Amino acid sequence: MVKNMFSRIDLSSFITGSTEHTWQPTMSSETNIPSYWLNWRFFLCAIFVLTSLFLSSFLIWRYEGPRKRKKHGDDTDDDDQSLELEQLTGVVYDDETWNTCVKDVHPNWLLGFRVFGFFVLLGLISGNAIADGTGIFIFYTQWTFTLVTVYFGLAALVSIYRFKYADDGESGVNVVDEEEQGSYRPPLNVFKSSNGHDRDNRTTRQIATTLGYIHQILFQTCAGAVLLTDGVFWFIIYPFLTAKDFSLDFFIVIMHSVNAIFLLGETFLNSLRFPLFRIAYFVVWTSIFVLFQWIVHACVSFWWPYPFLDLSSPYAPLWYAAVGVMHIPCFGIFALIVKLKYIWLSR
Questions:
Q1: Which residue has the higher pLDDT, 2 or 73?
Q2: Residue 284: CB partners within 8 Å, gap ≥ 6?
Q3: Average pLDDT of the residues in 110-134
Q4: pLDDT in tens, 141-196
Q5: CB atoms within 10 A of CB 73
Q6: Phi first, then psi: what are they for 103, rounded to 5°?
Q7: Residue 204 DSSP SS3
Q8: Is 56's pLDDT higher than 90?
Q9: For a tag site, which of 26, 118, 124, 153 has the least CB within 10 Å?
Q10: Average pLDDT over residues 297-301
Q11: What residues contact residue 139 under an 8 Å CB cut-off, 6+ apart?
Q12: In terms of pLDDT, which residue wins out, 132 or 18?
């Protein structure tokens, strides 16, 4: 969320024992001893994290992807017509991964934006690593910035693939009859072809490939993580906790702004939906970061990148719970942005 909650620190120098900085975070206790972990605080935090992972896994299992069931009153097992799609919120359609949400905006503009975004983000995260060392990747901020970079790279590949093979056959891709789409209809012009013109008499939509699903999942994971890192930094950490301890520099500002700018630009251009159940992936992403921190600190004793991760505090379970609850408004705000976009475009 911020390079740390106290000061601008070159992690590589600090870990190697450099004293060139005027302030360094202090450790409350050794983290690689059994007594640090074998206590009620860690037990409660572990229950919270593992429960969150379990509930997230259940949501993913329950709603992700297209599922079919028999129509009511039909006992025929072999009749394909007796099957209907359910859990439509978990379906990702191929055209959603590369198309724009506005008829007048050609999909190639989205392709160009994704390619441009990927190279800019890649250059920035690489520059940050060169300037401050690879130790920056101990922070959630750099994890998230890297994830957004990966998203733009994958999104660019999806758009390039569609641009290159738009005129080729569609064999090997599942389709869904329009009658089976339930109440869902894409907001605007989703049957637009790759050359920008509407397709007439289109009765089926292609279900996205595995790559398309990964693309959608990364998009929604990035959305929540970016709001969590940037929002918490600019509205909580910087004004209330760190303004007296350090001045903003180039990479601090960049790491907490550019990712959000590019992701919002992507959101305003693409035609991806934003099902709420995919908050599960956002929770899984943060949980992986927490488990990584636990493993590292159990092996090597050094300071925590964020003080609220420190398990020596008697308030640690409350901090973990509070940060966990913050995932809901962060994800919800981005879902609202997407909703408002489609409401505005439908006028």
A1: 73
A2: 53, 56, 57
A3: 96
A4: 999 999 999 999 999 999 999 888 765 544 333 444 444 433 333 443 333 333 33
A5: 6
A6: -60, -35
A7: strand
A8: yes
A9: 26
A10: 93
A11: 1, 2, 3, 4, 305
A12: 132
Residue 34 tokens, joined? 């059994």
Q: What mean pLDDT is reported for the chain?
A: 80
> What is the 8-class DSSP label of residue 69?
E
For residue 86, what are the β-bridge partners?
67
Helix (H), strand (E) at residue 29:
none
For the chain, give the percent of residues with pLDDT over 90. 59
The helix (run of H) or strand (run of E) holding residue 20 is none
Cα–Cα distance measured from residue 40 to residue 211, given in angstroms and rounded to the nearest whole number: 42
> Does residue 229 contact residue 257 with C-beta atoms inside 8 Å?
no
Q: Which helix (H) or strand (E) holds 18?
A: none
Both structure tokens of 112: 């160009």
Residue 343 has pLDDT above 60, yes or no: yes
Q: What's the CA angle centered on 131, arms 253 and 255, to 5 degrees?
A: 25
Contact present, 265 and 24 (Cβ < 8 Å): no
Strand partners, 207: 93
Strand ranges in the chain using DSSP code E only, listed in sequence order: 67-70, 83-86, 175-177, 204-206
Report strand pairing: 204-206 vs 175-177: antiparallel
Predicted pLDDT of residue 3: 43
Long-range contacts of 310-313, Cβ-Cβ distance < 8 Å, separation of 24 or more: 310/28, 311/31, 311/36, 311/37, 311/39, 311/41, 311/42, 311/45, 312/28, 312/29, 312/36, 312/41, 313/28, 313/41
The gap from C-alpha 303 to its chain's centroid, in whole angstroms, comes to 26
